[in-house]
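[Q] Does anyone have a clean structure-token version of this?
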Amino acid sequence: MTRASLEVQRKVFVIGGGSARHSATGTLIGRDGDLRRIRDLLRIGAGGGALLLAGDAGVGKTAVLDELAGAAEAEGIRVLRAAGVEFEADCSYSGLNQILFPFLDALDDLDLPFRDALRVALGFDSGRPPERLLVSNAVLRLLQTVAAGDPLLIIIDDLPWVDRASTAVLGFVARRVAGVGVSMLVAARPGAHSLSEGGALPTYELPPLDAESAAQLIGSKFPVLARNVRQHLLAVAGGNPLALLELPTALQPALADPPAVLPLSRRLETLFGCRVTGLPMPSRSLLLLAALEGSGDLGVLQAASRQANDGYSLDDLAPAERDQLVHIEDRTRRLRFRHPLIRSAVVSNSTSSERRAAHGALAQVLVDQPERRAWHLGEATLEPDEEVAALLEHAACLTLRRGDADGGMRTLVRAAVLTPQGPNRSRRLAEAAYLGAESTGALHSARKLLDDARSASPELDEGSLHFATAAALLDLNSDGDVDTAHRLLVAVVESTAETHRYDARDKALVDALHMLAVLCFFGARHELWQPYYRVLERLQPEPPVFLSALGRTFSDPARTGAAASGELDLLVASLPGETDPIQINRVGTAALYLDRLGEVREAAWRVVRTGRDGGAARRYLSALIHLCLDDYLTGMWDEALDLADEGLQICQDHGYSAFAWYFHYVKSIVLGARGHADESLATAHRVINWAVPRGAHCAAHYAHHAAAVAALGLGDFSLAYEHANAVSPAGNLASHTPHALWVAMDLVEAAIRINRPEDAAEHVRAMWEAHTAAVSPRHAMLMDASAALCTTDDEEALRLFAQALATPAAERWRFDFARVQLAHGERLRRIRATAESRKPLRAALATFEHLGARPWAERAEKELRAAGWSRRGSGESKAHTLTPQELEIARLAASGLTNKQIAERLFLSHRTVGAHLYQAYPKLGITSRAMLRDALDSEATSRRTGAADDSPDG
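[A] Here you go.
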């Protein structure tokens, strides 16, 4: 033996000898609990003990060993490392040689029989082979001698490759080290021979990473990985760290759509593939059928094997069962692979002809399952075949009805590949491109599919609705403008009338009209909506309810929205059982300007959760938009900001630049209302500069609204008037400008403040003539409040304010409701009803503080002080400036929880928790986490002692 075979590794930050998987703090991701439990069981530095660390290949056993070794050395504990080596497995005592090599000099301190036995066993002297018991006792005595000075930790990796003689001796020692200062940790896969074979040895089964840790690991190493690819990898890897780090490297760099069975990297092939190739051919053939069939149904496997006529039976699975590659569940009669990567290894080690034959056999068996049969036929077919392509197209339709846009797109692409050159091929490619652009988020793939469709049939762009719809959406998300996309889409809808015949059941026509409605909304001009209305009137037998509702609520809601309430009732009633994310989002769009997004929240959250799990990105994005807007209106601003950041990331990941402005708007208006005017106005101006050249006037209107709210908070009423007037000029509720509804009261208040009462009165008149109060309870409240702001008759003003605040369910719109309360209190104070003014002002102040709307809270408090109220007690509270979420996070942090623990409890990311604490410290007048408890205790005492002085009449 030589020193080259010795492995004494000091601090190693790798998995299985290669890939780092540490967090930014240097600790293993997701292994804190495992490391604590292993240390406790080993009693490192506290008397010693032995433990077998078991776990599947690639689960991270070596990384855990490395981490424990590094931590022990940092504590001054002596660490010995050894690892089993395949080519030394037949060399007796080679493992002991690795471990004891550093102590050769200490052999001379042993009694003569022990010293001689060890020197012969380790190969340093010749002589008669010593008895194993003598060697075992000699090793134990040597370790006791060494550990008498400092505690000792022995770590042995890859135990199955350690020679049998060494394994027997180490097993003897392991069962006797407790209490002598020696800790022994060995690692092996489940089922391999181990030190515990000769007696009871504690075993710790190292589990796969949990879902959160697995996502953190793959996100830290592959941050630009497409979301759907990441989710697929997470599912296939099953928490196996090596698989999480190796699988992405085996994919094509720009791949946005993962294959059904992932290819294995060389390292994974070495780990899993060798176990498959060692099986008999009948076993491998049956495993290939099982891997491609997917469900593990033994009946299907048996029938497919007969269909293949290879003479094999299910009995041939026995070798794979004995080798623990698969498990047969007797109750369900299904085969289950022990690890998803074994399935990948089975497929990777088969030939293309073997795979086609297996697919063909499965297709012949699955005659009663059209989707699965079509897919297997598609995989078994090499040349264009219209019959197979038609079956795949039908399967894609079935898949889409379940809301699986990714699966539908993949199946359509396969159908197109197997379609003979011509119009059918182009049509299928165009529909796949539409799905890629409108649903899955695969914009790059969609562009390529459109190019392929045009190549297959050059005249396609003039006569394909799906082609035109996809092209319009792709153009919108590049450098195109709204008017051009609108013109091209209208032209194709009108030119293909003889094909679609205005049939309301024609999916391509319905999809095109929905896209047309989006373009009209973006453009926010009366003339853009006219072609939409014309087509809608001609649809037979009648327009789909959601298209009819969009034509009223999404176009000119101030004038026509209320008339669509009945249609919206029908749409909302369908949501509880709705599974199609496209339909859920279309209902949300129809509900937006009638302020009924709250009725869509539960369904929208279902879409978001699906999106987070790798579902269709465009659908995910739309649901986030609806939740963000409802969060702003109802005062859930912290959630609105979190979801806006999430939405912006999706836009960036998938190239949906045309929809990022929604999220910038939410961030801008919340930040503006909270007093961060500079950031709010800068964001609003960026959106305006992006939108105006593209003709996306609605996006600019949203940005002007955010800027108006920020300016009102600043007290810059001229600037507020300028921005509100840019949406809809004073005295005119602009036609087909939906957001004119949302800025109406802003314009009225700004006009009053800059002494333009005539403009304010004219705008109120325009609101009254459009019957905006009928749109929703919120707009009824804002209509009355705007009229109250305008009137010079104090008695009438007070009546209107009272009427506004008494609007049913008006409290739901927290910020708007508090603004009306503030205006009511201001009017009361100006007519010297100071005592009466305190109640609405105090209520407004409480809401503004809850929302973190600092400038509005300061304005309300200023009015209260002018009305004779003041905060008294042991000092003015600082905690009242914290938002509810900041306060909750601060309290949890003060209790001793870490950011990660707080994040898990509140369902936030640890970065969001850190950001909230960063904002809370200066508000509380502190600089560190250690000061939180005292700061919050002081605030609580202040509130208790000042409560009596905070009464409404105080």
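[Q] Thanks! Anything notable?
[A] Residues 423-440 form the longest helix (18 residues).
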